[in-house]
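User: Can you recover a sequence for this backbone? Please restate the input before giving your answer.

Assistant: Of course. Working from this structure:
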């Protein structure tokens, strides 16, 4: 289904609508080359639909890369092995997207914390089960 943005309020209407379902203004015939108003998903201000970056909050609107798999792998590896989690977190922190950076910071501290926990657990297991008893 094809939709049309209202030039007055930026609401997304069905293509065959004659009036905006939000503000009830008459919808003009718009061609696909015209820049239609839209709303930023981060700050909800009106922006140009072809914009790559919001002029109000500065968030990137059109990502060229999808970081979801890297974020998920970062969380998984932070639990399994801290070192790979640290590497992925540093990679995510260096990206431009603010949400990706936040995940990178969380994964960084989670990897450090869990590495300390793993090291303590391995030490306790060594002392209790492997090390010879002191005489």
């Amino acid at each position: 289904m094809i939709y049309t943005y209202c030039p007055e309020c930026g609401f997304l209407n069905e293509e065959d609508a004659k009036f905006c379902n939000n503000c009830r203004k008459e919808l003009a015939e718009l061609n696909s080359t015209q820049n239609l108003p839209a709303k930023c998903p981060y700050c909800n201000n009106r922006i140009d639909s072809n914009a790559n970056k919001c002029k109000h909050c500065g968030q990137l609107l059109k990502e060229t890369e999808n970081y979801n798999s890297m974020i998920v792998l970062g969380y998984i590896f932070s639990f399994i092995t801290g070192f790979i989690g640290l590497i992925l977190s540093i990679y995510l922190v260096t990206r431009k997207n603010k949400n990706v950076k936040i995940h990178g910071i969380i994964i960084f501290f989670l990897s450090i914390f869990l590495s300390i926990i793993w090291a303590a657990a391995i030490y306790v297991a060594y002392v209790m089960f492997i090390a010879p008893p002191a005489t």
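That completes the design. Residues 1-62 form one domain.
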